[in-house]
Amino acid sequence: MTSEISSSAAPVISARDLSIRYPSRHPDDHEQAVNGATFDLAPGEILALAGETGSGKSALASTLAGEAATKSRGAAIIRGGSVSVLGYDIRRLTKRDHDSLTLRLGYLPQNAGAMLAPRLTIGENIAEPIFSRDRRFSQAIAGAAVATLIDAVRLPMKIMNRYPHELSRGQRQRVAIAKALILEPVLLIADDPTAGIDVMVRGVILDIIRELQKDRFFSALIVTTDLGEIERITDRVLIMQRGVIVGNGKVDDVFDRPSNPYVAGLARARRRTKGLETAYGR
After folding, report:
1. CB-based burial of residue 276 (10 Å sphere; 0-12 exposed, 13-18 middle, 19+ buried)?
2. Is 267 helix (H, G, I), strand (E, B) or coil?
3. What is the pLDDT of residues 70-127, one digit of tens each?
């Protein structure tokens, strides 16, 4: 669960009236992904970002991870408001700032497990962020760090010399988590880390993230579409609908006093799920 945070600590993420859109060839024909988002993430806190598919969650997550600054094809564009991440103004992020930010930020995009380099071993994949920054870094120190994380994500050491295609989807996702954390970031942004994973494995993935966060005390923004996942990993939630934040606060507060029809529908679904769990003694 969320750690106790000093109210005087500066936010790790601070967004004010943030608006984001996807690029278009026609200036008058653009898709507004996020409209007027305002929220904070405190040091050492886990915040769940929930909502239906297409609600703007991934656009917000990738922007917070600094992807907008890369100006890569298809990257979202900030159109209004302000946002700072680890003290960096994301709207004015230079290449040097981007490099410094990503040194302290671990980003797990959607389907990260499928993005592992197929020709690198699992150990090489996890260590890649280290050697992409410093090719002369000690192999022994890097190897020890990789081994520590392989153990932390509950994988056997023997997979270190295997290749991604030799692992299951759930195992590859754990490898991707280890890779995102190899530089010991102070912030993890994970975009739907259990998407496409077998239902029996999803809880393990979430438990791993929660345990690592507790052990290493990083902040985390976890994107999800599953209500059950929220309470498994944190007690704070942002809910988005059509690019707008329609719920923000403690999970019980948001669902007990819904401020919009979409959130009210989620609250009813949550009560039904809890009722079924009670009825079957879970």
Report:
1. exposed
2. helix
3. 666 667 889 999 999 999 999 998 989 999 999 999 999 999 999 999 999 999 999 9
Q: What distance lies between CA 144 and its chain's CA centroid?
A: 25
- pTM for the complete prediction? 0.90
Residue 142 CB: number of other CB atoms within 10 A?
19
Residues 159, 192, 173, CA angle at the centre, nearest 5°? 5
Q: Are 126 and 149 in contact (CB under 8 A)?
A: yes
Per-residue pLDDT at 19: 96
Residue in 222, 282, 274 with CA at minimum distance from that of residue 252: 274
pLDDT at res. 281: 56
Classified as helix, coil or strand, 81 is: strand
Do β-strands 77-85 and 46-51 pair in parallel, antiparallel, or remain unpaired?
unpaired
Residue-range domain boundaries for the chain: 13-113+185-279
What would the CATH number be for the domain defined by 13-113+185-279? 3.40.50.300
Q: How far is it, in rounded angstroms, from Cα 71 to Cα 198?
A: 34
